[in-house]
């Protein structure tokens, strides 16, 4: 599994991988801080699989997933970023990859070699694209084959990051939640509604998810007018925030 081959990252990705394009930027430093705090939050057990999701569409979960994957790989870990958003995939565009085959193909038994859907992109980072949009994404993601895939991947690699669909519109992430070691919820400032975040957290808890924390995305810093970035804080959505 995971054969190496030459693969270049596009420099005009629609989702800005700041950790690649601007490695010395404030945003990249914030991603490093988020990575560190995820590690602290998971000290009770070894983190091998991490799901990144959001309450609703447009909160930046895929941007966070991609940048986190790059930073973990820079740390020397062998990382696989999996696009499990089978309904609205974006990871293949971010890394300039073809998406004729992917996770959906493997789960639907439409391919013999999983390596056909896994691409070495930079250093220690591999990307598994979503594949064609299937008619039954929830069933595929909730299947035993998905569990087996994650188990197999963690035998080969240090960390699997799963870019999952938003929680409230569909059940996909709830089905994935108890298959991974930890979950991070991305909340976009000025977009996410408190009730939606609360409902998303409750849905994850019902699915027995291990919620490691939340990432506040798109924070406007008064010292950088119009600046797009991640906040330095990383915390839990507590009952006090209701």
TrEMBL record:
It comes from the Bacteria. Its EC number is 2.7.10.2. It is an enzyme of class 2 (transferase). Signal peptide: none annotated. It catalyses: L-tyrosyl-[protein] + ATP = O-phospho-L-tyrosyl-[protein] + ADP + H(+). Pfam families: ParA. Pathway: Capsule biogenesis; capsule polysaccharide biosynthesis. GO terms for cellular component: plasma membrane. Keywords: ATP-binding, Capsule biogenesis/degradation, Exopolysaccharide synthesis, Kinase, Nucleotide-binding, Transferase, Tyrosine-protein kinase. InterPro entries: Bact_polysacc_biosynth/exp, P-loop_NTPase, Wzc-like_C, YlxH/NBP35. SUPFAM superfamilies: P-loop containing nucleoside triphosphate hydrolases. One of its GO terms (molecular function) is non-membrane spanning protein tyrosine kinase activity. Transmembrane segments: none annotated. GO terms for biological process: polysaccharide biosynthetic process. NCBIfam families: eps_fam (TIGR01007). Belongs to the CpsD/CapB family. This is non-specific protein-tyrosine kinase. It comes from Lactiplantibacillus plantarum CMPG5300.
């Amino acid at each position: 599994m995971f054969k190496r081959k030459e693969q270049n990252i596009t420099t005009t990705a629609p989702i800005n991988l700041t950790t690649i394009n601007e490695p010395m930027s404030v945003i990249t430093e914030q991603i490093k801080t988020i990575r560190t705090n995820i590690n602290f939050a998971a000290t009770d057990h070894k983190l091998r699989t991490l799901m990144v999701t959001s309450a609703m569409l447009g909160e930046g979960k895929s941007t966070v997933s991609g940048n986190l994957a790059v930073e973990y790989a820079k740390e020397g870990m062998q990382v696989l970023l999996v696009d499990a958003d089978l309904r609205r995939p974006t990871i293949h565009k971010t890394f300039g990859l073809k998406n004729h085959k992917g996770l959906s193909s493997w789960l639907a038994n439409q391919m013999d070699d999983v390596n056909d859907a896994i691409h070495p992109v930079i250093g220690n980072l591999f990307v598994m694209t979503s594949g064609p949009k299937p008619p039954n994404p929830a069933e595929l993601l909730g299947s035993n084959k998905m569990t087996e895939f994650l188990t197999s991947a963690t035998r080969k690699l240090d960390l699997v990051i799963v870019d999952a669909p938003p929680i409230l519109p569909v059940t996909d992430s709830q089905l994935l939640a108890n298959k991974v070691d930890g979950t991070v919820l991305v909340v976009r400032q000025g977009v996410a509604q408190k009730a939606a975040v609360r409902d998303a957290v409750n849905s994850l808890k019902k699915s027995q998810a291990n919620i490691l924390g939340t990432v506040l995305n798109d924070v406007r810093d008064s010292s950088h007018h119009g600046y797009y970035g991640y906040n330095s804080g990383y915390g839990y959505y507590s009952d006090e925030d209701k």
